[in-house]
Amino acid sequence: YRNFYRTVPSDNSTALAIVKLFVRFNWTSCIVIYQNDAFGTGGAKIINEAFINNNLFIEQLIIFDITTVRIRGDLKSYLINSPTRIVILWVQSNYIKSILENAIQYDLLAPQFTWILSSSISLKNFNETVYEKLIGLFSIEPVTANVVNAPINQTLLNAAYQIWQQYEPETFPGSSNINSYALFAFDATWTLIKSLEKICSTMKNHSYSCLSFIGSSFCFHRRFVHSDLLLNELCLTNFLGVSGYIKFNFNVTDRIIGSYYYLQNVQPSVNGLNFIPILEYSDSTNWKTSKQTNVIIWPGNSLVPPTGRAILKGISLRIGVIESIPFTIVTNVIDEFGQNTTKFTGYVPDLIELLADKIGFIPNIQLAPLNQTYSGLIQAVVNGQYDIVLGDVTVTAIRRELVGFSNAIFDNSLRIIMRKTPYVTIELLSFLKPFSRNLWLLVLGACIYAALLICLVEKNDNEIFQNRSISSQITMSIWYSFGNIVGYGVDFHVNTAAGRLLTAGLYMLSLILVATYTANLASDLTISKSKDIISGINDIKNGKIPHNRIGIRIGTVSEDYYLREISSGSRNYYPLKSRQDLYDSLLAGIIDASFMDIGTGEYITNNIYCNLTLIEDDFDKGVFGIVTPKEWLYTKDLDVNILLLRESGQLDDLRQKWFKKRNCPNLDETSISMEIDSMSGLFLIFALITFLSLLLSIWSKRLIIKDNLLNILHRKGFLLKKKANMIKQSSKPSK
What we know:
Elements (H helix, E strand, L loop, with lengths): L10 H14 L4 E7 L2 H16 L3 E9 L4 E2 L3 H6 L5 E5 L2 H13 L8 E4 L13 H4 L3 E6 L10 H14 L12 H23 L10 E3 L6 E3 L2 H9 L2 E4 L2 E4 L12 E10 L2 E11 L3 E4 L26 E6 L7 E6 L5 E6 L1 H13 L2 E6 L6 H9 L5 E2 L7 H4 L3 E16 L17 H22 L11 H16 L11 H30 L10 H5 L8 E4 L3 H10 L7 E3 L2 H9 L5 E5 H10 L4 E3 L4 E10 L6 H13 L2 H10 L16 H25 L1 H29 L5
Parallel strand pairs: 1-2, 1-4, 4-5, 5-6, 14-17, 14-18, 20-21, 20-22
Antiparallel strand pairs: 2-3, 6-11, 7-8, 9-10, 11-12, 12-13, 15-16, 19-22, 19-23, 19-24
Helix pairs in contact: 1-2, 7-8, 9-19, 12-13, 12-14, 12-21, 14-21
């Protein structure tokens, strides 16, 4: 309608306001129910275009047939099977009640769905028993500028009210009860009056009156003579009306400024349920909180805005689990009534409990049969036997073609599991291993050094050294030094203070060396060392182990990897039906190696089968995810909450709780020889003591040393004097 100028905010303005409302609450999609006429179809089209332009989505367009006054199709099926929980109802107000009653019948209002109506209606005709379902409804409606505290032409409005009260006082409802659409109509009339007034003021000496019509007396067959002038004046219209600023532009018949809305919320009060304005919108300021109230009551009497997507809260889920230690540990216990019940513990039951507490779904845990394979679990979800499967199920491309997966609940990879093979070698000098070669040489040097000092300070004062040769004295000194270093002692004692100080140094050296040597030697003797016959997956690929000695569990990711990477599709492995079959076959020597998920493998080898071991290198890295049906409605809700658990560290805490236990002795440690660096301080102290001992020896014999020095000097002086006399006598001439 290119000549239809609108003072009521257009559908384009309404669609933009709805888009900004969705952005405010982080909603991304909705369902639109619209009536099948120009009003409904045009509105739905404009809303859809506005959503597309702002990266929002309309998941479903549902037609309300105004001829049959019914929804076309199954409203319950449309809404329940949609991933969104926001519904926009774009119909005239006289159809809203019947649509809401239909929705109430199938429980499609609160708390699961949030409805936004195109206009408010009276709620008094609804039964009070359904009030809880109606709380949290919204309506978005155009209003005049004064409602959102924007300027209006109050003088013009007061004059209009005065004329109304003067000529028809019996029909005047009061200024507070006048509908906004009446004021929009007044501004439309005032726009026409002002445009005609402008035309008439500019027309002089014209053959036709400024208000002339031509044609039939029937109104739709009559044409305004100066229509072009009128349309041109309408495009130039710009004034402050009773509903706000009125302005148009060329080629645009919608009001281009002055569009205002409020969002009303159904809330309980002493007078029953009422639509309460909670948000105000202006095309220049966006949505803001209303001054009347700032509390929004959402469906379900909640104060928390809904996510807008399908959520699991209150939904009962059939959760399939498979026994897999320590992910799911199954034990049979007798309850307080004497009944035999199945108890689930492990990583998976704990994760189910965390998710149920956080999301609010009702878990119905169902144990898969013992002969169930992981491929069979996938098929069980496809067949609808379970709603989801939670366990150590690896995400693969092939499986994704059949089912969906959640975000990762466990980081996984494969490792080779084998029997531990003892590796023993005979080393004649293994008792020397506690110390390194350099440290042994330093100990030997310290022993000889101390022996020489003992010999030096004791040989003149100790009877044991008297009447012995130099070599015998040194031998006795080495024996003394060695005996004290090893802590055995010797059959003689030192007599000098220097000797006793040196002995104290030897005792200190002995204390540390003997203790360290004993500890390291005990460690070497108790550590059991082993050597694996393969070092990693490449040895398997290179055929170091015969294929029929490699056990593979059927229907697992291990089988997929073996067929894809090792055997080129040939099933030449030894087939295993279960993990227990794997353990038994390894221990019985039927197979030499198999593949196992890293989490389960570490738990088994650290806590249950201590004589099995994992080869260091892991391969085929992947993740475990929760198995869901393809395009499951609740995938996003589940994914968001799994990410919240990961970000909060709760998934790491679960992994620490169930996979870091260790009951088996750790036999993979290797001792390290003590180096000089770790003993350097000890030998430095010993060197200082020997130096002090040498100084003490010199001090104690200072008088003897002094006498000896004087004797040496006196003797040297006597010899020099004698030599001088001899020279003097030889120089005299003979007679």
